[in-house]
Amino acid sequence: AKRAGRGVVRVFDESMDESIRFRRQIEGGLSQAIARGELKMVFQPICSHSDLEVTGFEALMRWNSPEYGPISPAMFIPIAEESNLIHELGDWALDEALAMLNQWPGQYVSVNFSPRQFRRTNFVGHVVERTQHAGVEPNRLQIEITETAIFDNAERAADTLYRLRQMGFRIALDDFGTGYSSLWNIRRFALDCLKIDRSFIDGMGRERESAAIVHSIIHLGKALGLEVVAEGVETEAQLQALRVAGCSHMQGYFLSRPVDADVATRLAEQRHLM
Ligand code: C2E
Ligand code: CA
Ligand code: CA
Ligand code: CA
């Protein structure tokens, strides 16, 4: 390899180094981020379609790095997920989210758990312990997982979800429709809520296929007694189309962006959007 096209090989190696170095820097920054107070949680309202009552909030992590400025969780969560950092970040996020429940009159908080968190030893015991520590009822915590979390060990995932649900926690399947064997999953697992992936809502007005999929998920959810949340509602037209389709709950920029804790508490007290 050294002899054949030295220059090309070196450029390739350097760009590899570059991306590895960048990941290491992100990892290093993240490992300090909690202690340095660079992380915060924001909260996006989830509303009922009928009267825009705020029934819950999804908790979303934000990182303002002194080196890089604001970095999207879509970028740093996967890096944390590849190391043990995800546990530290996830525990912090869970505690922050649970603490909000004492400020809100009755809404739930929906917390994202990455596959690695979900698969950790004694995940159930851990969630129970943090919830008790916060002094809140389990039914006010919704655990959001994606199909990836349950894909590789379905037997164990089914057991975990069953036990969580027995204890009163709410379970939501996030990004529904984008994973493997979605239908099989909802038959098999103890769930409360399906969150229709944003890509289907986005396509609804343009493609017959997306609209048909959205309608099917809503009907399926209803038939199975699940709450259905449409994610990424950005326009009035989408809101109306979802109303007509009989969607029970919605979340998206058209209703509200994710907001800081104090604004979330004001919306929670006010109870209705707009
Ligand atoms: P997600 O769980 O699918 O979260 C929804 C994402 O869609 C959020 O992006 C939210 O801000 C964004 N969103 C909400 N409404 C709209 C809309 O109307 N239009 C558009 N274009 N986007 C909308 P965010 O906050 O950047 O988070 C990205 C992903 O990072 C999340 O996707 C989730 O997978 C992950 N994430 C965020 N916070 C956490 C966390 O605390 N723990 C874990 N494990 N993952 C997290
Ligand atoms: Ca989510
Ligand atoms: Ca989602
Ligand atoms: Ca997503």
Automatic annotation (TrEMBL):
Domain of life from the UniProt record: Bacteria
Residue ranges annotated for the EAL domain, each copy included: 23-272
Leader peptide range in chain numbering: none
Identification of the protein by name: Diguanylate cyclase (GGDEF)-like protein
Organism expressing this protein natively: Stakelama sediminis
UniProt lineage: Bacteria, Pseudomonadati, Pseudomonadota, Alphaproteobacteria, Sphingomonadales
Span covered, complete protein: 344 to 617 of 640
